[in-house]
Design goal:
It is a single chain. The chain has a single domain, classed as Purple Acid Phosphatase, chain A, domain 2, CATH 3.60.21.10. The protein has helices at 13-22, 45-54, 65-75, 83-92, 95-103, 133-147, 152-158, 176-188, 224-227; strands at 3-6, 31-34, 59-61, 111-114, 119-122, 192-193, 199-200, 215-216, 229-232, 247-249, 259-264, 269-274. It is globular. Helix 3 packs across helix 7 and helix 6 (133-147) packs across helix 8 (176-188). The chain starts with a strand and ends with a strand. By secondary structure, the chain is an alpha/beta fold. The strands form three sheets. It has a five-stranded mixed sheet, covered by helices on one side. 32% of the residues lie in helices and 16% in strands. Bound molecules: manganese (II) ion. Residues 37, 64-66, 123, 234 line the site of manganese (II) ion.
């Protein structure tokens, strides 16, 4: 059995399959972990969803911000009419995609933990403000329970509302939508923090171009980083660089014409596939 972890695929199905073929991936014995953002931007989001749904037994996925946005549009929130939204709505017009969402995608977690391998995987990372495994388990399940609830449309309509943005966990004292937004932002969108660990939610560039007043979340100390390897995606401008060895960023910008990256966990070997855009 080999465990493979692939970064943000964003609908680049052919490149994804070619990585699996490189290692003769076998769904009967191997495991596939995905850092989220499986859809949007690329040409084959539909094929990606069908494939993952069919092989769900061998797959461990975390939801990324784009996957959550797909769920948000599916819940019926008002869309903006951008080309991006139109593309997702077109995907949703396929009835079979609704079945995949209702039976599988909306039940996918925001965090995957493996206590034997000592791995935590999330789409964006683990905020320095959460320093033990119990808080991580409990906050992610708070949001996961809402994603599958009947009231999820209300949640989605406030999910990205700046009015409810809070950058400080405030020692677990946040409540309501501010609390949900902090959890969503930390697990699916975070990149930089101030030295005290509060989030900075606007800057996407690579660290060498950013003020030293800000630090990538993974360079702020947190006891949890000593106990687990943290696997994440989301931040393509890192391109596999900048992180300490026990924190691994696997989004290498496939959807920007760069490459898709796969890590073979047991032997720590990397495989890449250049993406055609
Ligand atoms: Mn992302």
């Amino acid at each position: 059995m080999t465990t493979y972890i692939i970064g943000d695929i964003h609908g680049y199905y052919n490149e994804f399959l070619s990585l699996l073929n490189k290692v003769n991936f076998n769904h009967k014995k191997d495991k596939l972990w995905l850092t989220g953002d499986i859809i949007a931007r690329g040409p084959d989001s539909e094929k990606m969803l069908f494939y993952l749904y069919n092989f769900q037994e061998s797959i461990r996925l975390v939801l990324g911000n784009h996957d959550l946005y797909l769920l948000a549009l599916y819940s019926g929130i008002i869309h903006t009419g951008t080309i991006y939204d139109k593309k997702i709505l077109e995907l949703l017009s396929n009835k079979k995609i609704s079945i995949i969402i209702d039976n599988w995608l909306k039940y996918q977690p925001l965090v995957q933990i493996d206590e034997e391998k000592k791995i935590i995987m999330t789409h964006a990372g683990i905020t320095p403000q959460w320093n033990n495994i119990d808080i991580i388990k409990s906050v992610s399940s708070e949001v996961e329970n809402i994603l599958i609830s009947k009231n999820n449309k209300i949640f989605f309509s406030y999910m990205s509302n700046k009015k409810y943005q809070s950058n400080d966990w405030n020692n677990n004292k946040l409540t309501g939508f501010k609390r949900f937004n902090f959890i969503i932002n930390s697990l699916t969108k975070m990149r930089y923090c101030y030295p005290d660990g509060t989030l900075e939610m606007t800057i996407k560039e690579e660290p060498k171009n950013v003020s030293k007043l800000l630090k990538p979340w993974f360079l702020i100390s947190n006891d949890i980083y000593k106990k687990y390897t943290i696997l994440f995606g989301h931040w393509s401008s890192l391109n596999g660089r900048y992180t300490p060895s026990y924190i691994m960023g696997l989004d290498t910008g496939c959807c920007w014409g760069n490459k898709l990256t796969m890590l073979s966990w047991e032997d720590k070997k990397f495989y890449t596939k250049k993406c055609k855009i």
